[in-house]
Amino acid sequence: MPRIAYVNGRYVAHREAAVHVEDRGLQFADAVYEVCEVRGGRLIDEHRHMARLDRSLGELRIRPPMTSAALGVVLREVVRRNRVIEGIVYLQVTRGVAPRDHGFPAAAVRPGVIVTARAMPLAPRDARAKRGVSVITVADNRWQRVDIKTTGLLPNVLAKEKARAASAFEAWFVDEDGYVTEGTSTNAWIVTTDGAVVTAPTDRGILSGITRAVLLDVLRRRDLRLEERRFALAEARGAREAFLTSATTAVTPIVRIDGRAVADGRPGRVASELRQALREAAEVAPAWSGPRNPGRSDI
Ligand code: PMP
Questions:
Q1: DSSP symbols for 186-249
Q2: What pLDDT digit, counting tens, does each position of 251-272 carry?
Q3: Alpha-carbon distance 10 to 20, whole Å?
Q4: Model pTM?
Q5: Which of 5, 92, 220, 230 has the lowest tally of Cβ within 10 angstroms?
């Protein structure tokens, strides 16, 4: 079955999907994005993703291409056309196409929209979480607006590649004061020796992860001590548990940091329980059953 992408109002064959050479997403990474998990063919935490997209667009003064509801229709349609049951849907909004010039183009330029979806079965992700993953650490050399979910991800790309070269799953960014900020595409957490669950605050240096936010809600409803504060790499090394979160990894235990075992080197109990609790707490969007979607179809 051929894959289908949505590009600027059309559903097209994935292998032929293309943007203009002067799309500002391509030229300047002048674009924002979201990745939503799909489970049972349904979008997970759609409303929070749309709210974050709105915020990213607002911070960069990119005009919303359509309403969140209309975007939701396109996301569902791409999921449906690709028959994704377990996987992800990717949405990118760019400032649009204009002759290359750093300053913003005229207000009339239409923002670009790209949506793709792909299957990513849950079983291997669950198996990975059961084993636990390794992280390495790298200096956080990113710009100061990592709270905006832009496609400008080169430091993240380089750090992830370094992790791969070291046979690790993720790289944790460590700021110049020695604090762990977040991973290249995940938020970072520890469970301290006295049982507090700790993650960095969103006021500086991290992306406000949707999974992080949902997990905070879960933690607040439970009898677990929660601390939103910075934690140093040294504290993480001596922690009882460490784990990471994102839409695609959910809660995944970390068993090694820079090659050294975290506690006994096995996935922690708290992280494993939170993985389960998170799954139950997610907002599951209704399956699509409305009128036909906006946008033309070339298929
Ligand atoms: N931090 C960064 C830098 C990310 O790219 C991501 C993935 N979008 C996350 C954290 C986790 O965010 P979410 O839970 O929304 O997937």
A1: SEEEEE-TTSEEEE--TTSSS---HHHHHHHHHHHHTT-EEEES-EEHHHHHT-SEEEEEETTT
A2: 999 999 999 999 999 999 999 9
A3: 14
A4: 0.95
A5: 220
Between the CA of 182 and the centroid of ligand 1 the distance, in Å, is 9
Residue among 182, 244, 248, 249 to mutate when testing ligand 1 (max atoms within 8 A of CB): 182
CB distance 249 to ligand 1 below 6 Å = no
Q: Whose CA is nearest to atom 3 of ligand 1?
A: 185
In ligand 1, which atom is closest to the CA atom of 206? 1
Structure tokens that stand for 210 in this block: 């949707």
Give distance in angstroms: CA of 72 to centre of ligand 1: 19
**Nearest CA to 250 among 274, 284, 227, 221?**
274
The residues assigned a catalytic role are 149
Q: Rounded distance, CA 276 to CA 2, Å? A: 34
